[in-house]
Amino acid sequence: MSSVPVTTWSLEQTSPADLLPAAAPEGDVRIVRAEVPSPEFSRFLYASVGGDIRWTDRLGWTYARWQEYLERPGVETWVAYDRGTPAGFVELEPQDEGAVEIVYFGLLPAFRGRRIGGHLLAYGTARAWDLAERWPGRTPTKRVWLHTCSKDGEFAMDNYQRRGFKLFDTKVELEPDVTTPGPWPGAYPV
């Protein structure tokens, strides 16, 4: 199998004041927390958003692994809906010392380029900052961070920086050159 160089950028906010708002998209776009852990729904979001940008690390997860992850205290999935249809999601994972990682964020291909992404990212980041309010016993958030890479959408880095995230690390590593999986085999042209 061949390898390709992949650049990964890590970004952070260290204060809620770092968060820069985004304009709300036109139309009936709502963001709702998926409060019931659902491996089926989370896998659908993961595969549908990441299928054309080679998200593959969770495709082999079993149902039990998804359930275990989603039931961890503080793990949250916030879903954007456009007129009732899932358009994208942001997944938050609390970590030690008041850090919250935006583990996954993105839109299904049909909803990209419609100003939903900036709105969803701003909303999800605000929820990372107030996560401890929903989870008694959690340390208040002191830092929100994420990473993006050269395989992600062409506007990803710009969106993160426009929301107030600052770069703190860059790495380049060789990764296997995998075929774009799509949400199911053959869903996207290679």
Automatic annotation (TrEMBL):
InterPro entries: Acyl_CoA_acyltransferase, GNAT_dom
UniProt xrefs under Gene3D superfamilies: 3.40.630.30
PROSITE patterns: GNAT (PS51186)
Single Gene Ontology MF annotation: acyltransferase activity, transferring groups other than amino-acyl groups
Domain N-acetyltransferase stretches: 29-190
Name of this protein: N-acetyltransferase
Organism: Streptomyces capoamus
